[in-house]
Design a protein that fits this description.
GO terms for molecular function: oxidoreductase activity. The protein has 411 residues and is an alpha/beta fold. The protein has helices at residues 14-22, 36-47, 63-68, 71-84, 97-102, 106-111, 131-140, 169-180, 195-199, 214-224, 236-251, 256-277, 291-304, 320-330, 342-348, 372-389, 397-410, and strands at residues 28-33, 56-58, 90-95, 118-123, 156-160, 185-189, 206-209, 228-230, 284-289, 308-314, 334-337, 352-354. The chain folds into three domains: 8-141, 3-Layer(aba) Sandwich (Rossmann fold); 156-254, Rossmann fold (3-Layer(aba) Sandwich), CATH 3.40.50.1980; 257-410, Nitrogenase molybdenum iron protein domain (Rossmann fold), CATH 3.40.50. α15 links the parallel β11 (334-337) and β12.
């Protein structure tokens, strides 16, 4: 079989999604009740981004546990987590394929285990769904932690959908808070929060869903009276403006000053980059990101850069085989999304901008952000610099792009 036909898909299983969703809770532990491969795989993607902030363990089910049952292993692991991770107020037990196939009574074990930590079961066997469904299942597992609020705090929001393993998650959140200023307060952002923040989520006036979290938001609206809106991730100037207008309308907050500042930032950015941007117009680009980022990224490339988005796929369902077929057909001059696109980018000798999970060869040690005007500048900078650094080609659509940029660079 040809190598191109055996490339592994970009997507993963429900367990990976559950781990992603819960990783941002700073005082909680993720305990996987599964085989070692689940722990290794999910840990590898997380470890590349934040090795200093990994609260994840596994009880490691072996062959004999498949025959005899894994309940004993789980009970022992819970005792160890109480001892080793005493600073964690909650343990999310994420059960994978094997314990669910052999019928381990995980809920029964948790109900009869004594200790000071809250124990919550997230049932996430890989065969039950993809990575997206795992995120939603894990979010729903937070419901027992929520505390009913007598009244809402005006102009406060919860943010769902952005994950702790996103290389720019922390900086993007800081940039969002900067734009919101004193007008809107972030009550809880699930990519960086505590159990106390989660308990206080019903106090917020509004929930924001970036791709994920709609099932949890619906439950909170029905049971706790917290409405929600679905938003595209605010890439670029226009993306941030749209987000602020959407948020302002829902909360009745005036962002006129912030919108004007974005206009001024856009003019400055265009002045500095227009000679390069004109060479990107209608050039084909391929996007493959998770659901949280896809719509916003697609709008940024099409509406702000004027590029022709020929491929825009959610990585939860899209495979590298299909991406290779689509790339052969559309011949994009740029790939944007996950590190898994690296081989395709090298094959076609075009740039790859890494901005979405899993980005295991892209780290961020600065305060760089991908949202708003600063984010637009960074993305444009990465695109143009990557194009200039590619090996020279004398034919194909990409050659024209690089030559045009080089001509501007020499003037």
């Amino acid at each position: 079989m040809e190598a191109e036909k055996i490339m592994k898909p970009l997507s993963s299983c429900a367990l990976f999604g559950a781990v992603r969703a819960l990783a941002g809770i700073k005082d909680a532990l993720i305990l996987q009740h599964s085989v070692v491969g689940c722990q290794w795989g999910s840990l590898t993607f997380r470890y590349a981004g934040k090795p200093y902030d990994v609260r994840q363990a596994s009880d490691v089910i072996y062959d004999e546990d498949v025959v005899n049952g894994g309940e004993k292993v789980l009970r022992k692991a819970l005792q160890e987590t109480e001892r080793i991770f005493a600073h964690c107020g909650a343990v999310f037990v994420v059960s994978g394929c094997v314990p669910n196939m052999i019928g381990d009574d995980v809920d029964g074990i948790l109900a009869t285990t004594e200790g000071s930590q809250k124990l919550l079961h997230v049932k996430a066997p890989g065969y039950a769904g993809n990575i997206d469904s795992g995120v939603e299942t894990a979010y729903l597992a937070l419901l027992p932690l929520l505390q009913h609020a007598e009244k809402k705090e005006a102009a406060t929001i919860n943010i769902f959908g952005i994950m702790n393993d996103d290389p720019y998650a922390d900086n993007d959140l800081a940039e969002l808070k900067k734009f919101l200023g004193s007008k809107v307060r972030v009550n809880c952002a699930l990519q960086d929060c505590s159990l106390r923040d989660i308990a206080a989520m019903p106090q917020a006036e509004l929930n924001i869903c970036f791709g994920y979290g709609e099932l949890l938001a619906q439950k909170m609206q029905e049971k706790l009276g917290v409405p929600y809106i679905k938003c595209a991730y605010p890439y670029g100037v226009a993306g941030m403006q749209k987000f602020l207008r959407q948020l302002g309308a829902a909360l009745k907050v005036d962002f006129a000053e912030e919108l004007s500042e974005l206009e001024a930032a856009a003019e400055k950015l265009v002045y500095r980059s227009a000679d390069y941007l004109v060479n990107l117009y209608q050039m084909p680009v391929a996007l493959a990101t998770d659901k949280a980022h896809l719509a916003g990224l697609q709008s940024f490339f099409a509406e702000e850069l004027g590029m022709h988005v020929v491929i825009a796929e959610d990585t939860a369902e899209f495979s590298l085989d299909k991406m290779a077929e689509a790339a052969a057909k559309h011949k994009p001059v740029l790939f944007c999304g996950s590190s898994f696109l690296k081989n395709l980018a090298e094959k076609y000798q075009v740039p790859l901008v890494r901005c979405a999970y899993p980005a295991f060869d892209r780290l961020c040690f600065t305060d760089n952000t991908l949202v708003g005007a600063r984010g637009a500048a960074l993305l444009i900078e990465q695109i143009v610099n990557s194009a200039l650094q590619q090996q020279y080609k004398t034919d194909g659509r990409y050659a024209g792009l690089r030559e045009s940029i080089c001509e501007v660079n020499h003037e």
